Automatic annotation (TrEMBL), chains A, B:
GO MF terms, alphabetically ordered: DNA binding; DNA-binding transcription factor activity
InterPro entries: ArsR-like_HTH, HTH_ArsR_DNA-bd_dom, HTH_MetalResp_TranReg, WH-like_DNA-bd_sf, WH_DNA-bd_sf
The keyword Transcription regulation belongs to this UniProt entry's keyword annotation: yes
Residue stretches making up the HTH arsR-type domain: 15-94
Lineage, opening ranks: Bacteria, Pseudomonadati, Pseudomonadota, Alphaproteobacteria, Hyphomicrobiales
Pfam families per record: HTH_20 (PF12840)
Protein name, UniProt field: Transcriptional regulator
Top-level taxon in the UniProt lineage: Bacteria
Annotated keywords: DNA-binding, Transcription, Transcription regulation
Length: 118, 118
DNA sequence: TCCTTAGTTCAAAAGTTATTGAACAATTGT
DNA sequence: ACAATTGTTCAATAACTTTTGAACTAAGGA
């Protein structure tokens, strides 16, 4: 099962920039990048907002072509749409992520996490 | 004479992305990049909107740290703030400009221009 | 079957951004 | 001094975006 995603050539630069220009969404993208390869579900981002609000922001990211959302059971697995973004806007995602990593003003996922030990 | 500009370390990533996420402003930046080195005044952008509206968009670009505005007589000379952007967000401006150059959906400066001959 | 978990949808409210026109200010040329 | 040129400011409006809570759907486990 799949949700509506724009075709790669329908991804709009100004829309991608506008969508990334929101601190909550930029924080989501930064976290997705830090876990690249691992598909994350929506509840991983609850530090960044309410369930409803995240649903809204994650839909914006998907509709802009920044993320891919796969429906698996009751979960939505979210990944960065790196392949298409890199093809369409070479270097953009990498430079945004690199800058976001150094951005202390951005809300953090896992900020409220208790130290986990082995 | 100088207008208020943010210090380099005050330039915010999400703010820069949000400001570039508007088609009018992205078109301004693309045109500035195409004429890099040549300071342009506001009236060069009149294809993109009314005088008042451009004043608004150009102020947003300046306040976000994307452009530098120098007051010279009755003109404002506008340049890309490439040095600071490149330092703060390496590769970002270049990838945005490269993508913007290939963006046919973006409004064009000089679209209404009559062929100029030598 | 019933309960829980995961996430969506909807409508309202709040907040923000973009666009407009009229009035203004400052500089430059005559 | 006057007019033209360049651009700003202000207030109003229009148009979006974000956030919220309550109600909902769909899958999975007991």
């Amino acid at each position: 099962m799949t949700l509506p995603h724009p075709a790669a050539d329908q991804i709009s630069l100004s829309n991608v920039l506008a969508v990334l220009g929101d601190p909550t969404r930029l924080a989501i993208v930064r976290y997705l990048a830090s876990k690249e390869g691992v598909p994350l579900n929506c509840s991983q981002f609850l530090d960044l907002g309410s369930k409803t609000n995240l649903s809204y922001h994650l839909a914006k990211l998907r509709e802009a072509g920044v993320t891919r959302t796969e429906v698996v059971g009751t979960s939505r697995l979210i990944t960065l749409r790196r392949d298409d973004l890199d093809t369409r806007f070479p270097g953009l995602l990498d430079s945004v992520i690199a800058a976001a990593v150094n951005d202390t003003a951005l809300p953090a996922v896992g900020a409220s996490e208790i130290e986990v030990r082995a």
